[in-house]
Amino acid sequence: MDADSLLASDREHLWHPYTSLTSPTPTRVVTGAEGVRLRLADGREVVDGMSSWWAAIHGYRHPALDAAARTQLADFAHVMFGGLTHAPAVRLAERLVEVTPEGLDHVFLADSGSVSVEVAIKMALQFQRGTGRPERTRLLTVRGGYHGDTFGCMSVCDPVGGMHSMFRAVLPQQVFAERPPADPDASPVYAELVSPKHRAARLEKWESDFRAAAAEHAHELAGIIVEPLLQGAGGMHAYPAACLRVMREVADEHGLLLVLDEIATGFGRTGSFFAADAAGVRPDVLCVGKALTGGYLTLAAVLCTTEVARGIAGSESGVLMHGPTYMGNPLACAVALANLDLLATGAWRDDVARVHRGLTEGLAGCRTLPEVSDVRTLGAVGVVELTHPVDVVKATDAALEHGVWLRPFRNLVYTMPPYVASDDDVATISQAIFAAAVAG
Fold first, then answer.
1. Which of 5, 76, 117, 386 is most buried when burial is the number of CB atoms within 10 A of its CB?
2. Which residues are listed for substrate binding in this entry (predicted)?
């Protein structure tokens, strides 16, 4: 089929993420991808400023990842995980235990980030049941968060300002504390506008309110779940590492599990291998996904401590009540192992630091635009916040005119480029963001 025929059929039959079937926004046909570039059907090659929604950290058609997929495909692509196992899954579990914070010794292999959060929520609930506190059925989190689109995930997303507010009445009612204050290191605008004294006061008030919310609801709480240091699709909000340490203390004080959703932040995106590393915090349960396979295949994982695993075993079922059809998919596990080998070289550290410098410098000019309220960078993440909702169509078109694929949302024009993006690529992305901010 030619591009026009594909687009016509696409428009008639396919939903795309967060779009209308009856009045969809424009889509583009991709005919190839290599390195950090997407090749479109109209012949243009554009820099992918999104890493395919933050996952393709090494870019496309990486020889090591391609080879891992082909090698595993020659053996078998999939086998059920119920009653069977295989080398890629076992080796991946070993590697994940090695690279995650100490004590996370047990691994559940899920088939998507949302599913991993669902599993983590079940872990928290079953742990409390297994330790004699079945009345603890709610989660404490903070406003501005996003954890996925399935029902358990939606219940811990921001119930008012988030994307799922229309479902609020039918979701489990969780406990929401205020969003942590901004990280002044990530947001020069915040640092300039708010004095150190007032920043300290805001942090102190947030801590007091968070501790009060936990104390008030401790008798019914199973755990705390947050995205560490950077809230992703809830607003690309960066907050100080000190807040994570408070959450760890609160969890310990009240017998709660600390669940960290590192699906977006894990594997180097924020500058440390896991965002929790920057705070020196070890969670009881950790969710990882997205970049786990370098953007090749859908795979996620949930890791927990031995204490959590034993608590789950003590619940009335005696088993963790979840088991996806594609759990431990060998093809995905094999590619994930190759991805971890690439990350083990340590080159990502220099790459992320270099991308961060480029974005910090390249996006600074956006602060002069009247329609821009903030510019912030953290690791290989660059965000331009507008004073109004972005016109996605106009902003996307403007970025494409500058040779970059971006996908703005809400009032944000942002980028999470592949770590291997060159200095020239990062400069091009920055220029495209400026143009998108003006157009949108």
1. 117
2. 53, 146, 290, 323, 407
Instruction: Give residue 148's pLDDT.
Output: 94
Instruction: Please check whether residue 206 is in contact with residue 181, taking contact to mean a CB–CB distance below 8 angstroms.
Output: yes
Is residue 154 domain-resident? Answer: yes
Out of 183, 290, 414, 425, which one is annotated catalytic? Answer: 290
Residue 166 pLDDT level (bands cut at 50, 70, 90)? confident
Residues 203 and 294 in one domain: yes
| Active site (annotated) includes residue 149 | no
The pairing of strands 45-48 and 37-40 is antiparallel
Residue 48 annotated among the catalytic residues of the structure: no
Q: Is the dihedral angle over the CA atoms 339, 342, 343, 348 positive or is it negative?
A: negative
Backbone angles phi, psi at 7, to 5 degrees: -65, -35
Which residues form the domain of 18? Answer: 3-61+347-439
Give the count of domains, the chain. 2
Instruction: Please tell me whether 24 is known to bind a ligand.
Output: no
Q: What's the confidence (pLDDT) of residue 96?
A: 98
Residue 306 assigned as binding residue:
no
Q: Is 60 tagged catalytic?
A: no
Which pTM was predicted? 0.95
Question: With bands split at pLDDT 50, 70 and 90, how would you rate the model's confidence at 103?
Answer: very high
